[in-house]
């Protein structure tokens, strides 16, 4: 597909506001002589920056400061990364090209789109990515489909454009083949849109938003078969797919109840290679199925590096990237140069320990090995949490089911009510939450992350907990025991 073909196909998706959004430039594009003295740009002189050099002390292994090594950032001459004079200066709106190229390397290696005319744009974190995308494609006439439980700020982000969010029923199950979006429900919804009373007054959807791997809040992961079916529906009904993937690289190794702390990432009897991780552990993106350029993929450094850096990137077809770039030109412009420099310098340092065909291959290999260490750490935390939950009296009495995730940071505990429940489910969940808080643990109630609480009233009876933030495994274990006591107290009332 050419750029013009992409423009013709996807211009109709643009919001009313975006159609009038074109940045005005005062730059003169005429060729200049090589000895030109630039007096036109509002750039401060780099010699006036107060920072001359920065040393980054990097850990080689999560939580092990003893294995630190140093990567330096100098003002001008910095073979180890982006120099301060460049990264702390105003920069290209799309992001600094060395980091852009690395992000393209990641996409092209792990989740290469099934067409050629795609590109990457850096952003100030995934929330910024979503804001710009929804502003570009959504207005009062727009309907956006999303999983019935989702990251709550996304709902607000869509609604702030005037658009309407419509929930898609999910299969909340321990069966990996069935987890996530209910395909039969989605098919019926799209095929019968104009005859469904609660939606017939709305325009037919133009976009599906999904957290396809390690979904927040459910922890569910869409199988490749479901992804193929959803993509086919998107083609048939001409939908964009917005794939948000902050958790996809944090893949868990399978849980073994007989050996609950077993971790394939660290198991000496099973050497998990980078190739094994890329080809067998990770679930491929919708982009790998995308022959049309209708998938927009969001990746972020937040969960893999540090969220406070506010650095993420968008991969999409070149026309969509151009529209997002035009919006970025008059809003946030480039992400923090300091953040870009820290991330790029760190990745270069990780790559310096690797042997590869070229520098970019070495950087990619070093980065993936770091990500695997993080995935290993999260797998261990998942294992500790499962073990502790399964040891509780509440679990042994079948008061709850653990919806075992295969990726991410979240575990859902679904309540097994007596038949029928001895009261209103929502009120009972509120009681359970109060008891758990009293016991010294905070979790998130499922209905708090529902797109439509009435729609999801029968399926919102779960608690979301995260394995990410607890100080150590002792805290995770204690928290699970306190949750178990909370269930026992509720069921004995």
TrEMBL record:
Domain of life of the native organism: Eukaryota
UniProtKB keywords: Aminotransferase, Pyridoxal phosphate, Transferase
A single BP term in Gene Ontology: L-phenylalanine biosynthetic process
Cofactor: pyridoxal 5'-phosphate
Segment forming the signal sequence: none
Protein name: Aminotransferase class I/classII large domain-containing protein
Family: Belongs to the class-I pyridoxal-phosphate-dependent aminotransferase family.
CDD domains linked: AAT_like (cd00609)
Domain Aminotransferase class I/classII large: 117-483
Species name: Torulaspora delbrueckii
Gene Ontology molecular function terms on file: 2-aminoadipate transaminase activity; aromatic-amino-acid transaminase activity; pyridoxal phosphate binding
